[in-house]
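Hey Z.,

So I finally got round to the NAP thing we talked about over coffee. Here's the setup:
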Amino acid sequence: MESLNGKVAIVTGGSRGIGLAIARALVADGARVAITGKSAAHLSAARPLIEKAGPGAVETLQADVRRYDEVERAIDATVTRFGGLDILINNAGIGIFADVADMTPAQWSEVIDTNLTGVFFTCHAAIPRMRRRGGGFIINISSLAGKSAFPTAAAYCATKSGLNAFSEALMQEVRYDNIRVSYVMPGSVATGFMGGDESKGADWKVSSDEVAAVVVNLLRHPARSLPSRVELRPTKPPRK
Ligand SMILES: NC(=O)c1ccc[n+]([C@@H]2O[C@H](COP(=O)([O-])OP(=O)(O)OC[C@H]3O[C@@H](n4cnc5c(N)ncnc54)[C@H](OP(=O)(O)O)[C@@H]3O)[C@@H](O)[C@H]2O)c1
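And the result:
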């Protein structure tokens, strides 16, 4: 895609943090964007922030990625509102951090269902629409935690490692339908992830806008080649 002007995108978890920054960047580049999230209040708060970014139209859709019926409804609503679907950004994600011995089965399922099954759900619903359109672009927001595991993060790391493998398999399945698949693996990003303080470490962490810039660059990359995996880390994290 050389220009995002008039393209239609859906960003899961677009009401806060990295997803919000991606939605703003896409709109600033002329795309029409639907964002999803669980909280209606967060979606309402995000709308004016995205509209301020540029001329593209914005739709907000309450949809939990863990529920296939809600995901399908959100994809349908995006297609109905904007006439098609070109770009799917799988960004919605959570982390619950505890040792395996202490994590409850319900917590385990919540992380897997959101970060991994949710991505399958959106791709499953979106790919037929993209095929009908003649192509598209799917970008999955993974994490460096998918490559470098650490204690208390078995569930989170497993989902992101799984998402990397999922992305690579999918990329090979749909490439001849002109659907491009990439995944981005950020290190620490300054957001309110899991109730964290957005301002803490903001002087050295990757910013949400920098992740969004990578996403826009991927979308605009010449079609002959595909940067299928991007690792994005803070340039100078505190020395250990
Ligand atoms: N922050 C980091 O350091 C970092 C580093 C690497 C990768 N990542 C990844 O980047 C992505 C975004 O992280 P973030 O830091 O921006 O998180 P965040 O600030 O907590 O925002 C998460 C977003 O996802 C939405 N969401 C959560 N569960 C959902 C569900 N079941 N269905 C639909 N939407 C849901 C939230 O909506 P509600 O407000 O409605 O819940 C919110 O809009 C995640 O996949 C995360 O794993 C983050």
